[in-house]
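Next comes a concrete protein, fold included:
___
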Amino acid sequence: MVDSVTNSTAADAGAAKAATSKTKLSSDLNSFLTLLTSQLKNQDPLSPMDSTQFTNQLVQFSQVEQQINMNSNLSNLIGLTQQSIASNVVNYIGKTIEGPSSSAPLINSEMKASYNLTAKAATVTIAVKNAAGEIVYSKNGETTEGVHEFKWDGKDSNGVQKADGTYSLEVTAMAADGSTVDTSTTVFGKVTGVTSVNGVTTLLLGNIGIPMTQVLAVTDGV
């Protein structure tokens, strides 16, 4: 489900801050005008006050008021934009996405992921671990540089079917000289929900979160 509480709270906070600033500005302006009126009434007619100073102060009050109004309008615009994003992102629910993660969902005894090698490797080992960090399945992977697909049917090394859920992926690649080859993994999964925290919209694959800005692909299929 979409968590719109954060967005509305941020917008409300911005509006409250703007209202407080306006109230203080109004109070300060009233005090200034009261003082100015008193000074004008009691000034020496033979030596009138220089109007330049209080004119500048009035200009400053006007500029501050304009800035407060601008900030208020900006807060409202941000709030509307966040609400629009939250509403549109609901359309992702039920679709299959690809995104970077070291955890992957096993759904209906099927897991799909990919791994990338930054250089050619001599050996590549792909390990699937359960929540306890135990290796339940492992295999040798492709060693050429680039992106490679990985699929798992949920059966462990003994052929026993494992339960659907979230598993972690660990890809270890070694070069011929014994050095480590950098790797990265992406996973595929169906979007089950959407959340937004601190302005970051995240698509959920079960309990795996993929920030919307990091989604690499979206499909209707599984």
